[in-house]
Specification:
With 166 residues, the protein is of the alpha+beta class. The chain contains four helices and nine strands; from the N terminus they run αβααββββββαββ. It has two domains: 15-54; 57-158, OB fold (Dihydrolipoamide Acetyltransferase, E2P).
Length: 166
């Protein structure tokens, strides 16, 4: 029969205990550092997602007032197409003027305009100011329309399914 003797607890030297405590402190510091870095990264990503997801536009008045700070950055500009200002320069190039109150901005649009584009309707343009001028270079026109527009022009607006709304 084998008898296993119970071993007496071994004493840990003070140097070994101090080394173990130092390792535990370093491990805790590293975990805190990694946690702080991860929390910062998640916070930064949330900030970027939330701020870039907010899409808004500036009216012509606001854009002219903020002209210096906007520089040549891309933003959305809202206004009403001034009657008689639409000029077809080429197959996919249109020059026109939009207004918001008393403010008017000349627009050079490259790209195919939507079918609903015409004078005297509200539009939202995606683009930027050209250099130091007050000319707005646009590459996309979004036509704003309402149920009143649909009632006035039946058969012109397509719904989400692609069918014409009457």
């Amino acid at each position: 029969m084998n008898v296993v003797a119970a071993s007496a607890p071994t004493a840990v030297s003070p140097v070994a205990a101090a080394a173990r405590q130092a390792r535990e402190r370093r491990t805790k510091r590293r975990l805190w550092l990694v946690g702080c870095i991860l929390a910062g990264a998640v916070g930064f990503l949330l900030y970027k997602v939330l701020t870039s997801a907010i899409v808004y536009f500036k009216t012509a008045n606001e854009a002219v007032a903020d002209r210096a700070s906007l520089g040549s950055s891309t933003f959305q500009l809202e206004g009403v197409v001034v009657p008689g200002s639409v000029r077809h320069v080429g197959p996919e190039v249109i020059d026109f003027t939009i207004s918001s109150g008393a403010t008017r901005i000349a627009v050079d649009n490259s790209g195919t305009p939507p079918q609903l584009f015409q004078s005297n309707i509200p539009v939202v343009l995606v683009g930027h100011f050209v250099g130091q001028s007050d000319t707005f270079a646009s590459n996309q026109i979004l036509v704003k329309h309402s149920n009143q527009y649909i009632a006035e022009y039946p058969g012109r607006v397509k719904g989400p399914t692609g069918k014409v709304v009457k």
